[in-house]
Amino acid sequence: MCASFPTLAPSGQLDCSRDLISQKPLHLIDFLTPSRVAVQQPLLDADAVLAKLVALALPSSIGREETLREVKAREAVFPTALGDGVALPHVRSRNVAVLTLSAVVLTHAIPFGSRDGNDVDMFLLVLSPSNAPSEHLQMLRAVAKLVARPATIAALRHATSVAAFLEIVRETS
């Protein structure tokens, strides 16, 4: 096991080189792989979006259904729509082994409990191990920083491919 907080490298292997305890800056591109991003998705409701996000984040996890229930329960208590058409669902779970990020951009915005009253078309899901509260917060800060810029939100929203979405993340985070 890693002495530091492990992340999953694009190769699928655990990467123990990142010592998140020292609060080194997170690079979101280190957590988003092509298999964890879906753009131009014609999903029509919140349940379908959350299921897609969790499936992207945990494609072969035996705890995927329980994690999906945890994400839905968290949304029922306090919706994570940030405004401007962006939502940041997140949960710490015992079913999650490593800090994980997935993203979905919809073809049409859907209601998602946004305080500004706007529907949501961009979703970024953060899943963290239950014993990693500081890493969870660090990832939330990094994602919030990414979507704090209207130009970045617009560029991500209009990405026509996963590669284009990832390139925008690489350039701006």
Question: Which sequence of SSEs, written as H and E, runs from N to C?
Answer: EEEHHEEEEEHHH
Task: Give helix % range.
Answer: 25-40%
Number of helices: 5
Described by its quaternary structure, the protein is single chain
Q: Could you explain how this protein is built, in words?
A:
It is a single chain. With 173 residues, this protein is α/β, with parallel strands linked by helices. The chain has a single domain (27-172), classed as Mannitol-specific EII, Chain A, CATH 3.40.930. Helix content is 34%, strand content 23%. The chain is built from 5 helices and 8 strands; from the N terminus they run βββααβββββααα. The strands form 2 sheets. Strands 3, 4, 5, 6, 7 and 8 form a 6-stranded mixed sheet that branches. The chain has a two-stranded antiparallel sheet with strand order 1-2. α1 (46-57) packs across α2 (64-77) and α4 runs antiparallel to α5 (162-172). The longest helix has 14 residues, at 64-77. It starts with 6 loop residues before the first strand and ends with a helix. The model is unreliable at 1-22 (pLDDT under 50).
What are its keywords?
173 residues; alpha/beta; Mannitol-specific EII, Chain A; 6-stranded mixed β-sheet; two-stranded antiparallel ribbon
Topology:
Elements: E1 7-8, E2 14-15, E3 37-41, H1 46-57, H2 64-77, E4 81-83, E5 86-87, E6 90-93, E7 100-110, E8 120-129, H3 133-146, H4 150-157, H5 162-172
Parallel strand pairs: 3-7, 5-8, 6-8
Antiparallel strand pairs: 1-2, 4-5, 7-8
Helix pairs in contact: 1-2, 4-5
